[in-house]
Amino acid sequence: MLRRLLLLVAWVFWPSYCFSESIVPYYGTTGNAAADNALRWSMGNVLPEPPGVSVNGVIYSYTPEKITEDDFKVTVGNERIGGGDIWSDTQDWSGKPGGIEVRRVIGLPNVPKELWGDGYIETEGTGTVNDATVIYSYKVNPCFDPQFDPNCPGYKTPVPPVVEVTIDLYDATKDDNVKLSSEEQVLIEANEEQLDKEKEEEEKEAEEKLRKYRLERAMSASDASAIFAENIRIQQMNAVAQLAVNAQYLGATIPGGVYKETVVLKDAKIDDNKKGLRNGLAQQLLHEEMVQSQYQ
What we know:
The chain is an alpha+beta fold and about 300 residues long. The chain has helices spanning about 1-15, 180-250, 275-295; strands at about 25-30, 40, 55-65, 70-80, 85-90, 100-110, 115-125, 130-140. Among the domains are: about 1-150, Jelly Rolls; about 185-235. The protein has a 4-stranded antiparallel beta sheet, covered by helices on one side. It has a 4-stranded antiparallel beta sheet with strand order 2-7-4-5, with no helix packed on it. The chain is elongated.
């Protein structure tokens, strides 16, 4: 029966929302706060320790032992830190028989752990309370502290503290306990002057290098502009010259008209060259004779 009540209260007090992130609240129940028939208990020993714990319900049961005619009242509740009660529930058993177990479920609006004072079972009249059981249903919100996890709303990336270190440099020349001779003091001053001169020369050299670099850049830009302008000028001159050539030659015409053929053949028939035929025949016969001589 008690297990059914636990399932019922878990279903009743289960919220209809959840975090959109991967870190979500989780739920649980405590053990019996009134174990060993205790009539008073500290919530610090009952609720879990993680931050973000809130109580959303209480389940309690007990059995009153009394005579029917006797007046008897039983009140179960919790004190609120700062005064008053977070909740209390009173059952009047006056004129009722004892030995009947009572079971009650109390719903609560997620009251933070920090507000919970001691729990108690108080009686008024003649009778006793036996087999008392008080169980709390709670919710733990891991993101109660946003720094619990980077997925928690309001999480801020930790920034390590910057430690400021102050270093006091020791100057032996200003130490009253160090006595320098006049010669040593002169050497120190001369060394400081030399260092100042070297530093000044280095600054001048760096400034001179920078000035030369700027001048080279300016001259380079000027040369590039001059070359570009010269190329444009040459292109323009070439274009003008080409226009003059085109005007002189392209518009010229060749005098005359149609050149007709002046050769006229009187006879369309051309006789064979007999002398050429004889020479060709002789060469042919000579060739055949030379070929046949290879096989003799």
